[in-house]
Design a protein that fits this description.
heterodimer; A: alpha+beta; five-stranded antiparallel beta sheet; four-stranded antiparallel beta sheet; 11 strands; 16% strand; B: mainly alpha; three-stranded parallel beta sheet; 3 strands; HAD-like_sf (chain B); P-type ATPase C-terminal domain-containing protein (chain B); P_typ_ATPase (chain B)
Chain lengths: 349, 375
């Protein structure tokens, strides 16, 4: 019943009649593919493989974790939260009306450098509780208008910031309208610290997404000003603050590059920042922070990558050791037929 | 009684219906002629034999074979393989879609629940079509836990199907749980690694397109690595398709980034300019891939150690070539793996009683004729 059909497939049409050799056989042509006999690698998860796999992961991950942690520890960061402190004390009860008024918004802050900061030092502004990733906000822009002067009136996707006084706005949309407009001036020992604001945006944005023949027009002309006013004589490809801002951030807490300081800062130096506190984050309880940070080959200061690698590597090492103990204490001989189900509970499998 | 009321239906059809309703089991009917068509259609699985009596049975059947003896191979080899393939394929499909889909929902918590997708539309369209479908299709077509001769030698392995060992709720929920865990790992690790600081030495920070691309890369790599751990039978096809899926993702990203920003929008040159030169992209992908598949690896290692299933043991015996070294053991296990059939038991008992009666009748008849008294 069993042994006479090992090499013929089920489902073949026609008779595989070999008893009458003269009759033409209708048996389909044999091929390894159709008979599912392709050469195959059938790896087995033996104890050796299990322990080796876990050890390999821990051997690779722990050094990567250490290196990443050191890289992150090398980064020096100064963070200064200023949105409450920069409102005069007597007006702190109603910050929204302060920010919307014409009062003097200049504010001076002092930053202390704790460790040597090698140039370039990146200056960021950090906003909290600002949802640049809200769907309607992200939608509110017109890429064709930004790219090409000929599409200057393609403002359909930009509502509500599409037209002002009957004329299309260039650049239209909520993202451009809400452009961040605080400014920072740094001085060290009464000397101005230059902040390089060139090259802060992605090159592909400057070259291909923001046209050099597109000029701001009719911008921030309405009753409600959302942010910065753009210079109408500078083409969009050179308005790097706008380009950086238009790359909508992923999370409600984000930093955006403001500029670069191209000199070293020695420890215990005090930097005086004169900032213009123009941007209204008070209506939605947002926070504003000024960040100065160096970078490493891995980026900014974030210990998490290193810690995560060390955790996973350590966990794998622990698993490798546990499995070694388990295999030593309770070994199961490979291929031991006493583990087959009909041997383990005979009479009822 | 059935014959009185259902004169139009043949006896074989009625018997099949009776067995189906009476026992509640899955029935298989096999036949080769036009008179078997009713029974073939009535049975849950109909097998038609093509040949001498024509093609009517074949046209009415679910499966057709050319000889009756092929039925054994159909069930024990192909039935066994197909059950496992389909069970694994369906569980994996649930897993990968949960791992991908839930990350979208987690992101919503960070966008004020406004419905903004963190992934570009084309990523999501291609996910199930090109980027993760090919390896699982090759799993469903080519996967073999044991070779066909072992299937024929150990028909008990077929019992894994009727006992539903591979598609019970424990397994389904386990795979869904694995998908849930993977989605959490992918999302949380990426969000914290790329939180607000610069991700490159040149000081640029992460934006939504970059975070979406990074998370998607992690999903593709984790999901394809996971399937390579599920497979036990690697032909060149499976190898090729797994690598192809991962490479297709990077190739797609590269090509998509090359077309004009009118169409590619924020993905324009994202791989070449922003991600590929950033070491944190590759290190984060490696970390997330391994972190997602680690629990599964630990689970199957433990299972293999403490509760190995029949096909695991047989795979090990074959791998260590113990079937050739210890032929006695192999033959003994093969014999034990066959169960004496219980069907037709009553019929055989009746036939045996009849044959006994017949012999007794003959004996009394011959005794009586010897006595000379005709009865």
């Amino acid at each position: 019943m069993s042994s006479n059909a090992p090499s013929s497939s089920a489902g073949g049409v026609g008779s595989a009649d070999s008893a009458a050799p003269r009759r033409n056989s209708k048996r389909p042509k044999y091929s390894k593919f159709t008979q599912q006999e392709l050469p195959a690698c059938k790896p087995i998860l033996t104890p050796r493989w299990v322990i080796s796999a876990f050890m390999l992961v821990s051997i690779v991950f722990i050094p990567i974790g250490v290196v990443s942690l050191f890289a992150s520890r090398d980064v020096v960061e100064i963070i200064d939260r200023y949105e409450t402190e920069c409102v005069p004390e007597n007006l702190r009860d109603n910050k929204v009306s302060f920010i919307q008024s014409d009062a003097n918004k200049t504010c001076t802050r002092k930053l202390r450098v704790k460790k040597l900061m090698k140039q370039p030092i990146y200056v960021y502004y950090q906003l909290d509780n600002f949802y640049q990733n809200h769907r309607r906000y992200v939608k509110s822009r017109s890429d064709s208008q930004l790219k090409d002067n000929s599409s200057w009136n393609d403002v359909s996707s930009c509502k509500p910031e599409d037209m002002s006084n009957g004329q299309p706005i260039v650049p239209c949309g909520l993202i451009a309208w809400s452009l961040f407009n605080d400014t920072y001036n740094f001085s060290l020992n009464n000397q101005q610290l230059a902040v390089n604001k060139r090259g802060i945006s992605w090159k592909s944005d400057r070259d291909s997404k923001f046209g050099n023949d597109v000029f701001p027009r009719n911008f921030q002309n309405g009753t409600l000003k959302g942010g910065k006013i753009l210079d109408p004589t500078v083409p969009l490809s050179k308005q790097e603050d706008l380009i950086v801002w238009m790359r909508t951030a992923a999370l409600p807490t984000f930093r955006k590059l403001y500029g670069k300081i191209e000199r070293d800062l020695q420890p215990n130096e005090t930097i005086h920042v004169t900032l213009e506190n123009n941007y209204n984050t008070y209506s939605f309880n947002g926070k504003k922070k000024l960040v100065l940070s160096t970078t490493s080959w891995l980026g900014g200061k974030n210990d998490f990558l290193g810690i995560a690698y060390l955790t996973v590597g350590g966990l794998c090492f622990f698993l490798a050791l546990s499995f070694t103990v388990v295999y030593l204490l309770k070994p199961r001989r490979l291929g031991d037929p006493s583990y087959l189900s009909w041997n383990r509970n005979p009479g009822g499998h | 009684m059935l014959e009185i009321f259902f004169l139009a239906l043949q006896r074989s059809t009625l018997v099949t219906r009776l067995v189906k309703q009476g026992t509640g089991r899955v029935t298989l009917g096999i036949g080769d002629g036009a008179n078997d068509v009713g029974m073939i259609q009535e049975a849950d699985i109909g097998v038609g034999i093509s040949g001498v009596e024509g093609m009517q049975a074949v046209m009415a059947s679910d499966f057709s074979v050319s000889q009756f003896r092929f039925l054994e191979r159909l069930l024990v080899v192909h039935g066994h393989w197909c059950y496992k393939r389909i069970a694994q394929m369906v569980c994996y499909f649930f897993y990968k879609n949960i791992a991908f889909g839930l990350t979208l929902f987690y992101f919503e918590a960070f966008t004020g629940f406004s419905g903004q997708s963190v992934y570009d539309d084309l990523y999501m369209i291609l996910f199930n079509v090109v980027l993760t479908s090919m390896p699982v299709i090759s799993l469903g077509v080519f996967e073999q836990d044991v070779s066909s001769d072992v299937c024929l030698e150990f028909p008990t392995l077929y019992q894994q199907g009727p006992r539903n060992l591979f598609f019970d709720w424990y397994r389904i929920l386990g795979w869904m749980g694995n998908g849930l865990y993977s989605s959490i790992v992918i999302f949380v690790l990426n969000v914290i690694i790329f939180y607000d600081q610069a991700f490159r030495a040149e000081g640029q920070t992460t934006d939504m397109a970059i975070l979406g691309t990074i998370m998607f890369t992690c999903i593709i790599c984790a999901v394809n690595f996971q399937i390579s751990l599920i497979m036990s039978h690697y032909t060149w096809i499976q190898h090729f398709l797994i690598w192809l899926s991962v490479l297709t993702w990077f190739l797609f990203l590269f090509v998509y980034g090359m077309i004009s920003p009118t169409y590619s929008k924020n993905v324009f040159q994202i791989l070449t300019e922003a991600l590929a030169p950033a070491p944190v992209y590759w290190t984060a992908t490696l970390l997330v891939t391994i972190a997602c598949t680690l629990p599964y690896l630990a689970h199957i290692s433990l299972q293999r150690c403490f509760q190995p299933m029949d096909h695991h043991i047989i795979q090990e015996i074959k791998y260590l070539k113990k079937d050739e070294k210890d032929k006695v053991m192999w033959k003994r296990e093969k014999t034990k793996a066959r169960e004496k059939t219980k069907f037709g038991f009553t019929a055989r008992v009746d036939a045996y009683i009849r044959s006994l009666r017949g012999r007794l009748h003959k004996k009394t008849h011959s005794l009586k004729s010897k006595d000379g008294n005709p009865s």
